[in-house]
Design goal:
Layout lengths: L3 E9 L3 E9 L4 E4 L6 H13 L7 E4 L5 H4 L2 H7 L3 E6 H7 L2 H9 L11 H11 L7 E3 L3 E4 L5 E6 L8 E5 L4 E5 L7 E2 L5 E2 L6 H13 L4 E4 L5 E2 L1 H27 L7 H13 L11 H16 L10
Parallel strand pairs: 3-4, 4-5, 5-6, 10-13
Antiparallel strand pairs: 1-2, 2-3, 7-8, 8-9, 9-10, 11-12, 13-14
Bound molecules: zinc ion (ZN).
Length: about 325
C-alpha cells in the first residue's frame, strides 16, 4: 500500500497559509518543513492526534530552506517526535544554526546599501524562528530517502530562492514538495498583501524552474499555495519564469536611467521596477530588493565575464 501523505495547513500572521507535509512510510516518516514556531503545536501535532496517528521510531525532517516559516517549528517537532533527524542543504543549514547570521545574511542584508529592516520586523522574524536548529545531515548534493515498502523520495538541490533550497520529489508519484523553490508571480504575506517572488540568484532560480519542468510532475505542493495539479503545474512554472524575465527586463530599464553612484540606488531601482510592472500594488517596493539586487549583480557579471571583451591578454 502506498504511504499516506498528510498535508497540514498552518497560519502565519492573519491569513498566510503555511503548508507542511508528512509522508507516513511503513518503516519511517518523512516530514517536510515545520512552519514557524507554534505551527507544530497549533496545526501539525493536532492533525496527527485527530487521525489517531503516532510517529514511528524513525523520522526524517527535510527543511527545504533557511527561512523562519520553514524551520521555526523544528524545535517543537524535535520535542514531540522521537529521534527526529533533520536534513537541509549545508548553505542554508548555517542560517538556521545561528539566528544572528540568519538576520544579517538573509533578512537585513542590504543595510550597507541603505535598505534597513525595522526592529519590529526583526523581532517578529526572531520569534517566528523559535530557536536555532542544529541540522543533523548537511547536504551538498542530492539525497535519497527510503521509507520502506518501495516508497522512496529524492531530495534535490533547487537553489535561487535561497542558496541551499531543496525540493523533495517522488518519481513514482510524479509529485514534488516545493517549499518556496519557485513562486509564480508572488506570494501573500501575513496580512494578505501580494508580494513579489523572492529570489537571490537569477540563473539558479531559472534553472530550478527548468529542473521542475524536466521532472514531468503531475502534482506539486508549494508551501503557500493550494495543491497544483495537471495543467496548473505547467501554468505555475510558466508564471515563475515569466515573472523573473519581466523583473529582469524592468531592472535593465531602471539600471539604464538611474545614476550609478546614487547612494540610495537599490531603493530607487526597486521603486522604478515596482512602478513599471504594477503587479504588486500593495507591497512595498523594497520587497523587491532581493530580486532586484540579484538582477543587478547579473547585469554586472554579464558585462564583465567575457575574458577577451577588452582585448585582454590570454
Ligand atoms: Zn516560505
Amino acid at each position: 500500500m502506498p504511504a499516506e501523505i498528510i498535508m497540514v495547513e498552518g497560519r502565519i500572521g492573519r491569513v498566510k497559509p503555511v503548508r507542511t507535509a508528512i509522508v507516513c512510510g511503513s518503516d519511517a516518516w518523512l516530514w517536510i518543513d515545520a512552519g514557524i514556531a507554534g505551527t507544530p503545536r497549533d496545526a501539525i501535532l493536532p492533525a496527527l492526534a485527530t487521525r489517531g496517528l503516532t510517529p514511528p521510531a524513525r523520522n526524517i525532517a527535510v527543511i527545504t530552506h533557511g527561512d523562519v516559516d520553514h524551520f521555526g517549528g523544528i524545535t517543537e517537532l524535535r520535542e514531540a517526535v522521537p529521534q527526529l533527524v533533520t536534513m537541509a542543504h549545508a548553505l542554508d543549514a548555517r542560517l538556521m544554526e545561528d539566528l544572528d547570521v540568519l538576520v544579517a545574511e538573509r533578512y537585513d542584508r542590504f543595510r550597507d546599501e541603505g535598505v534597513v529592516l525595522d526592529d519590529d520586523r526583526v523581532a517578529q522574524l526572531r520569534s517566528r524562528a523559535g530557536e536555532a536548529v542544529a541540522v543533523d545531515v548537511r547536504l551538498t548534493g542530492a539525497a535519497r530517502i527510503d521509507l520502506g515498502d518501495g516508497e522512496h523520495w529524492r531530495v534535490l538541490p533547487a537553489p535561487g530562492h535561497s542558496g541551499g533550497h531543496v525540493v523533495v520529489v517522488s518519481d513514482a508519484r510524479r509529485h514534488a514538495f516545493l517549499g518556496d523553490a519557485v513562486m509564480g508571480w508572488g506570494v501573500i504575506d501575513g496580512e494578505g498583501c501580494l508580494l513579489p517572488p523572492h529570489y537571490i540568484d537569477v540563473l539558479a532560480y531559472r534553472s530550478t524552474v527548468d529542473l521542475l519542468r524536466t521532472l514531468d510532475l503531475e502534482t506539486m505542493d508549494a508551501a503557500h499555495e493550494a495543491r497544483l495539479t495537471g495543467a496548473s503545474v505547467d501554468a505555475f512554472l510558466a508564471a515563475s519564469a515569466e515573472a523573473v524575465d519581466a523583473i529582469g527586463t524592468a531592472v535593465s530599464a531602471a539600471d539604464a536611467v538611474i545614476e550609478s553612484d546614487a547612494p540610495d540606488r537599490l531603493a530607487r531601482v526597486c521603486a522604478d521596477v515596482h512602478a513599471r510592472l504594477g503587479r504588486w500594488p500593495d507591497a512595498s517596493p523594497l520587497t523587491l530588493a532581493d530580486a532586484v539586487s540579484a538582477h543587478l549583480a547579473q547585469l554586472r557579471v554579464g558585462s564583465n565575464t567575457h575574458p577577451y571583451a577588452d582585448g585582454g591578454v590570454a
